[in-house]
Amino acid sequence: AQSVTQLGSHVSVSEGALVLLRCNYSSSVPPYLFWYVQYPNQGLQLLLKYTTGATLVKGINGFEAEFKKSETSFHLTKPSAHMSDAAEYFCAVSSSGTGNQFYFGTGTSLTVIP
Amino acid sequence: DAGVIQSPRHEVTEMGQEVTLRCKPISGHNSLFWYRQTMMRGLELLIYFNNNVPIDDSGMPEDRFSAKMPNASFSTLKIQPSEPRDSAVYFCASSSGTSGSPSTDTQYFGPGTRLTVL
Lengths: 114, 118
Hints:
The structure holds two protein chains of two kinds.
Chain A: E1 3-7, E2 10-14, E3 19-26, E4 32-38, E5 44-50, E6 56-58, E7 64-68, E8 73-78, E9 87-94, E10 102-104, E11 108-113
Parallel strand pairs in A: 2-11
Antiparallel strand pairs in A: 1-3, 3-8, 4-5, 4-9, 6-7, 7-8, 9-10, 9-11
Chain B: E1 5-7, E2 10-13, E3 19-24, E4 31-38, E5 42-50, E6 53-56, E7 65-71, E8 74-79, E9 88-95, E10 108-109, E11 113-117
Parallel strand pairs in B: 2-11
Antiparallel strand pairs in B: 1-3, 3-8, 4-5, 4-9, 5-6, 7-8, 9-10, 9-11
């Protein structure tokens, strides 16, 4: 079975400050990990994903995430927050194999304070 | 390029009525996914199709829900009869990966249909 836990349903940062959104996963097989962003009244948009290879993954809009197997984590970071980063962020996990499924976390709402 | 198109964007109906949600995937994409988003349960994958064939419908909550994909450019999600607990935002997504699974393919989401069942 697989699951995703996002720590902190709401995160507030000042403009220009570091953004850190936490995601921990549970998976009995090697996971594939994703971060999606959802702006108000819109669908989800992929920020980045990890499948295999390099554990530090760079995505769009200056975001990156690092897969840490020992910590079962895939935290999302951005060095300097912009006002336009205010949105809902979802971590998701899946795996290969038959009967694979795709599980989203409950989301973290990011507020950027001017 | 047109993204994933969903209609209607908003639907308000009364309990017991049939509801049909529609989705047009991105042209050339061969996989289509239906999700439901609620405050209580977050985002849930309901069903996905590959090359118009349903691959995994284990997320469909009960027999009142059904989904079809008669061709590569159209899919429907039907709820009959609808209940207040079905109120949610329903998203359709499509992808062009060859595996046709949610595992690794990048999915492109539509804007969603906000369903309210009174």
